[in-house]
Amino acid sequence: MDQDAVRDLLREVHDPDLDDDIVTLNLVNGIEFDDDDTVHVSLALGAPYSPTETAIADKVRQVLGEAGLDVELSARIDDDIEAEEQVFPNVENVIAVASGKGGVGKSTVAVNLAAGLADMGASVGLFDADIYGPNVPRMVDADEPPQATEDETLVPPEQYGMKLMSMAFLVGEDDPVIWRGPMVHKVLTQLWEDVEWGHLDYMVIDLPPGTGDTQLTLLQTVPVTGAVIVTTPQDVALDDARKGLEMFGKHDTPVLGIAENMAGFKCPDCGGTHDIFGSGGGERFADVHDMPLLGSIPIDPAVRTGGDSGEPIVLEEDNETGAAFRHIAREAANNAGIVRRRRQS
Ligand code: ADP
User: Fold this and answer.
1) Helix (H, G, I), strand (E, B) or coil at 141
2) What is the domain count for the chain?
3) In a mutational test of the pocket of ligand 1, which residue from 276, 296, 304 has the highest number of ligand atoms less than 8 Å from its CB?
4) For residue 297, which atom of ligand 1 is closest to its CA?
5) Beta carbon of 106 within 6 Å of any ligand 1 atom
6) How far is CA 56 from CA 101, 201, 266, in A?
7) What CATH number has the domain bearing residue 171?
């Protein structure tokens, strides 16, 4: 068996999103045999632990295994960005979590998305860039501040398998910071450059609400893989979410999808779900703007208790709301993979 024969076999592996075989799509970086007759295949896959890419890799193993080959897989996509231009050279995917206005559950989604990805097995960083109201450390019960090293870099504390950084560690959650644009830019860039993140599969960034200086700094300096937009089902919230969409559109940043929060009230007494803010708003919005709805989360008192006590609800196995967040984490990872494979092919 030679490289061409292996390549032919790989034509049997189909990418369900880009709808073609992985060879035609240019998703096979290389095929090499070593002395022990093991074939090393490097695939251009970009979203580690995403269900779709895991299935593609499994299929590759299966097809080559059935042909009697020992297989070793690796996955890598080299984006077209010069190494020295990269803000996060060791971060595979940057996911920005945004909302049009405050109070819709953006931080809650960011925390549960990050914890959900970590729970899938990924290495994850959670960067709380909400400099005006940083509350991520409280939500994940992290009271250890980052440690400073001798070369004046910061080692982020870890919680639930996520590396954390937040302005709250530096100024305290209850001290409002009034900064103008240039200061915001300076503090943010310093915060992400001076932190020892190490290699990360995903960096989740919790943005402040709206379309201000932080968003501008981020979109101008960080290669964001895609944004997740959090909204509630009401029309006013959706109007604000639309502005967020326009902002990402202007910077050519893909939107991975919409997370609809507070869609109905899950009543702990009767077990039923009551629509409070109307229903189907997130789905219609996603349809009209031709983007995926990642999922809907009900109002569930357990989300807030989880947020207050520190354990993200996504980690609760037998919990429907936790399952809704797990679904969102998987979809977001799948869609990040689509963005990256599409660029490669
Ligand atoms: P934002 O970041 O958009 O300002 P937060 O994530 O801080 O919003 O959420 C605001 C409040 O609402 C928090 O107390 C949070 O625990 C609560 N919350 C968010 N989503 C839900 C939900 N689905 N069910 C119940 N409470 C929620």
Assistant:
1) coil
2) 2
3) 304
4) 23
5) yes
6) 38, 18, 36
7) 3.40.50.300
Write out pLDDT tens, residues 278-312: 667 888 888 888 889 999 999 998 898 766 667 89
Say how many Å lie between the CA of residue 137 and the centre of ligand 1: 14
**DSSP-assigned letters across all residues of 149-171:** -TTS-EE--EETTEEEEEHHHHH
For the stretch 169-183, pLDDT in tens is: 877 666 666 667 777
Domain containing 135: what range? 83-344
Q: Assess whether 174 and 258 both reside in one domain.
A: yes
What is the whole-number distance in angstroms between the Cα of residue 301 and the centre of ligand 1? Answer: 10
- Whether 54 is in the pocket of ligand 1, judged by its Cβ within 6 Å, is no
Instruction: Give me ligand 1 centre to Cα 311, in Å.
Output: 14
d(CA 21, CA 27): 9
Q: Do residues 272 and 141 both lie within one domain?
A: yes
| CATH code of residue 52 | 3.30.300.130
Check whether residue 31 and residue 178 sit in a common domain. no
Q: Dihedral of CA 155/158/162/165: which sign? A: negative
Please state, rounded to an integer, the average pLDDT across all residues of the chain. 89
Q: Establish whether residue 111 lines the binding site of ligand 1, counting it when its CB lies within 6 angstroms of any ligand atom.
A: no
